[in-house]
Fold:
Amino acid sequence: MLSKNKIKLVGQLSNKKFRYENSLFLAEGHKCVNELLKSFECVFLAHTEGYELPDGVRKPKDIETVTSQELKQVSLLETPQNVLAIFRIKPNAGNGVKLEGKLTIAIDGVQDAGNMGTIVRIADWFGVEDIVCSFGTVDVYNPKCVQATMGALARVNVRYTDLAEFLKSASEKVSVYTTTLDGSNIYESKLDNNAVVVFGNEGNGISREVRSLCNRSLIIPSFPKERVTSESLNVGVAAAIVIGEFRRQFK
Amino acid sequence: MLSKNKIKLVGQLSNKKFRYENSLFLAEGHKCVNELLKSFECVFLAHTEGYELPDGVRKPKDIETVTSQELKQVSLLETPQNVLAIFRIKPNAGNGVKLEGKLTIAIDGVQDAGNMGTIVRIADWFGVEDIVCSFGTVDVYNPKCVQATMGALARVNVRYTDLAEFLKSASEKVSVYTTTLDGSNIYESKLDNNAVVVFGNEGNGISREVRSLCNRSLIIPSFPKERVTSESLNVGVAAAIVIGEFRRQFK
Structure:
């Protein structure tokens, strides 16, 4: 049976301050938990009868079999799953990102947990190892965001840092791309795979300071190009198309 | 002041059966409402002081100024906006879709309103006029879905039909593409722009019957190609990359 302390702890993990003070985050569902077990230290795992740990992962020190009812009580999901686990956040090594010879994603202020999760999945699919975020970006260890990554967080390093500082130093070594309405047509540009690509906030795009640190600018053309649409693309969709195009050119 | 009947009507528009029996749907927020006013008949519009109808649209017959408090009471959104409107659903002309010489999207059972909205926005951005959906696909006039289209619904025709019937007839005229794990690398395939591209359900992909009606199969390769990832791409992200690649090849 889950102790009162455990129930309280799970609830507290919705709180960002609490997560970082304790370096802990919550994940639910076997898809997500099983992936994270491969890459994060698990400090507690509660599961219903029938769930089995995947092969080749270290058994969590603290593991408990509970009823569906108990799991439902603590779950933050609308449809509770068969397993819930608490993992240790890895120490943030924001300045240790190797930039040369690869593609890195930078995020300036994305707010929606679903969008952030989508971007982590895109990074995973396209083999981008690092995502560097401004402090104002939604916390990837937010339970909704962990859920939206569908376990991809196990294979992508997400760091929070002073983004302007990071880009100032990055722009001396590699190309720093952004997408703007007056950028070059991405499909007609020879892309440099030695690069950081910056994506901005859902409503406001990237901040003026960050923009001034980007040395290349791209646009995803609408079709036909002359067509006027008042529409813009969702940041997850823009990231998919941009990162996909980098990978197409360097396949 | 909003009458009891109006308040009741707005609430009922969350219900699919009610929407179709009355051929009405709800939209909120000036971004969304102002776009839809250009293309759908508006039967009722309620707005707060300060909202102005955009230029060039027909004034709704029934228009009312209300307080923020009143709007908040009926709003289905967590953060209510300054305007809310009820529009007439256009008659469904599922079999009237012209297929030759263009790209059409087909949807087989997408369930998430956010994903469906994203696909409508992608269609709008890339100039895809028609989306043909199976009856089991989430209703695009669902208020959450309308919201997620951000007004793109004004420029894209979404129809519901017997998808297998539709594809049977379509496959005699144009290429019918799907994405599968054993498909051809999309970046190395010469795509036929005279085509229907089918996207499937979030968990189960496309149904066996629909799959048998597709005559071309594509894969979005992960990077590097050999890399094993247990991850898959979200359907909105897959649609973005696939439709983007069609447009790149036919720019």
About this structure: Strands of chain B lie at 24-28, 42-48, 63-66, 83-88, 103-108, 130-134, 157-161, 175-185, 195-200, 216-219. Chain B has a mean pLDDT of 92. The first strand of chain B starts at residue 24 and ends at 28.
